[in-house]
């Protein structure tokens, strides 16, 4: 375990370069490759999450007024689950995977060896600043890499706590935290990494990818976008409404990458859905929802201004059917529902990432899929229906990072599913075994002996050798036998 030092000196390109060199030298010593080192670090993350749960909850409250239940379950427990799974499965994940060989290499055996990439950079965002910082780090450590974590400056209490905890609990010769904003991140991005994992918006995603391209560094980009929820008729609206409310306002007050961004439904369902949502909101957060302690605040005044701009647009402000109240001093915006906002409004064209929920009506529920596909590919798309055919159409027609039918957000907690976006919502994925794979190189290894050294592939080339090689390449044993007979004639 390393010492705890507050980063006081300027962190520029030179400082970044010497840090990466130190980490690379240590990585090359082979220390992080051992199973023991990996498991020890993962256990230390688990211990840190347990020992310091209250400090983490406090930091998240300071940054986001995040309710304790949300911090404890959606950040700390999720991270602990990721660690526990990695610890349990690591031996199995690290084991080379035996694979079949082909006739062309007969006799031989083959395996896929997972090797660490080297020194990796993890850049994380402010909305789940604890989980989204350490969840990729768990994958990077499990895969045997050295890691630098750059948490978000927009959640300063969690960033500083992460620096302190990583200093106290983890092996700092291979795992570091660099705090800072654009200048520090830019200095980090100038360095040569073996992988960069970035979670955040797609504008910065492009900056990260351009910087990575200079060194041919692979990237895992966990981005966002507008996640739609399609609501069909003849469903249990009460359950649907509860699940939409829980996955929107109950997850960091809408500041979640997979929160429902907007709803698509038919006119006949829309009003009933609004009533059901209002009812559940009141049951969850009371009559004065702006004051509820169970709702996070907006992270800062810039995001507050961004959200109120969406709400105050002329063509949108008259469409509020619930909420709309705000308190600038406390950075609070009440859960707000809007009905029939125009498709060309700002709120329908930007990722909302906050407590506003527009409902957009369509003639037929099936047309929702065209509306979704007319935009950029979302990180998640949801459908509420009992109709089997509609489910099938949705799965076939809608391209998104992931799909969830009849609920919101909880697909993230299924570690057998990859979590990641597609096109504008990201590239690559992690969670469970996918996290280990995301930070590993899959090295194909073929083993041969000196026996069975058939001369057919060596010059001088003959027609017989050609026929035999063609048969071998086609994988047909019969063809090989025929060619052998042919060969023996030559
Ligand atoms: P953010 O502002 O905290 O930025 C993310 C990181 O990028 C920070 O560490 C920040 O320091 C760094 N950064 C900012 N500007 C930079 C620059 N010019 N150059 C280099 N680095 C820079 O977070 P955000 O972008 O506001 O996060 C919200 C977005 O992230 C949303 O779009 C959301 O959907 C997405 N998101 C995606 C996931 C996912 O898992 N796919 C999870 C959470 C958030």
Automatic annotation (TrEMBL):
InterPro entries: Ald_DH/histidinol_DH (IPR016161), Ald_DH_C (IPR016163), Ald_DH_N (IPR016162), Aldehyde_DH_dom (IPR015590), Aldehyde_DH_NAD(P) (IPR012394). Residues 11-443 form the Aldehyde dehydrogenase domain. GO terms for biological process: aldehyde metabolic process; response to abscisic acid; response to water deprivation. Pfam families: Aldedh. Gene3D superfamilies: Aldehyde Dehydrogenase, Chain A, domain 1, Aldehyde Dehydrogenase, Chain A, domain 2. One of its GO terms (cellular component) is cytoplasm. The keyword Cell inner membrane does not apply. The chain crosses the membrane at residues 468-487. It catalyses: an aldehyde + NAD(+) + H2O = a carboxylate + NADH + 2 H(+). The active site is at 222, 257. SUPFAM superfamilies: ALDH-like. Keywords: Membrane, NAD, Oxidoreductase, Transmembrane, Transmembrane helix. It comes from the Eukaryota. One of its GO terms (molecular function) is aldehyde dehydrogenase (NAD+) activity. Belongs to the aldehyde dehydrogenase family. This is Aldehyde dehydrogenase. It comes from Quercus lobata (Valley oak).
């Amino acid at each position: 375990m390393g010492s705890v030092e507050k980063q006081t000196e300027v962190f520029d390109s030179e400082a970044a370069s010497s840090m990466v060199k130190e980490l690379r030298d240590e990585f090359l010593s082979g220390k992080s490759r051992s199973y023991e080192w990996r498991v020890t670090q993962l256990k230390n993350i688990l211990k840190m999450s347990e020992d310091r749960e209250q400090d983490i909850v406090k930091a998240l409250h300071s940054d986001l007024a995040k309710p304790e239940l949300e911090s404890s379950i959606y950040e700390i427990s999720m991270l602990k689950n990721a660690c526990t799974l990695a610890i349990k499965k690591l031996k199995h994940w690290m084991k080379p995977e035996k694979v079949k060989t082909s006739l062309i290499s007969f006799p031989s055996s083959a395996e896929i060896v997972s090797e660490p990439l080297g020194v990796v950079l993890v850049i994380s965002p402010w909305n789940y600043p604890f989980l989204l910082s350490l969840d990729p780090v768990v994958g990077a450590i499990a895969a045997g890499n050295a890691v630098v974590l750059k948490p978000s400056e927009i959640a300063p209490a969690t960033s500083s706590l992460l620096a302190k905890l990583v200093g106290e609990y983890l092996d700092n010769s291979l795992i570091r935290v660099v705090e800072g904003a654009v200048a520090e991140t830019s200095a980090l991005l100038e360095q040569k990494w073996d992988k960069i994992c970035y979670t955040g918006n797609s504008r910065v995603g492009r900056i990260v990818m351009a910087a990575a391209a200079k060194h041919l560094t692979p990237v895992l980009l966990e981005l966002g976008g507008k996640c739609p929820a399609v609501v069909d008729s003849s469903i249990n609206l009460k359950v649907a409404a509860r699940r939409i409310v829980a996955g929107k306002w109950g997850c960091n007050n809408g500041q979640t990458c997979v929160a429902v961004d907007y709803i698509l439904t038919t006119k006949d369902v829309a009003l009933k859905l609004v009533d059901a949502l209002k009812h559940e909101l009141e049951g969850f957060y009371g009559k004065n929802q702006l004051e509820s302690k169970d709702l996070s605040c907006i992270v800062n005044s810039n995001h507050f201004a961004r959200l109120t701009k969406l709400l105050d647009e002329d063509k949108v402000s008259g469409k509020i059917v619930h909420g709309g109240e705000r308190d600038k001093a406390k950075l609070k915006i009440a859960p707000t529902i809007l009905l029939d906002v125009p498709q060309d409004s700002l709120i329908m064209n930007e990722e909302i990432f906050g407590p506003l929920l527009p409902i957009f009506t369509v003639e037929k529920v099936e047309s929702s899929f065209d509306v979704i596909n007319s935009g950029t590919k979302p990180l998640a798309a949801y459908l509420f229906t009992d109709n089997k055919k509609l489910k099938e159409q949705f799965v076939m027609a809608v391209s998104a990072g992931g799909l969830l039918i009849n609920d919101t957000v909880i697909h993230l907690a299924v570690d057998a599913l990859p979590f990641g976006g597609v096109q504008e919502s990201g590239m690559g994925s992690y969670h469970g075994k996918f996290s280990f794979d995301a930070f590993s190189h899959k090295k194909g290894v073929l083993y041969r002996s000196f026996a069975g050294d058939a001369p057919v592939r060596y010059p001088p080339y003959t027609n017989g050798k050609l026929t035999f090689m063609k048969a071998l390449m086609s994988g047909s044993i019969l063809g090989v036998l025929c060619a052998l007979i042919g060969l023996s004639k030559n």
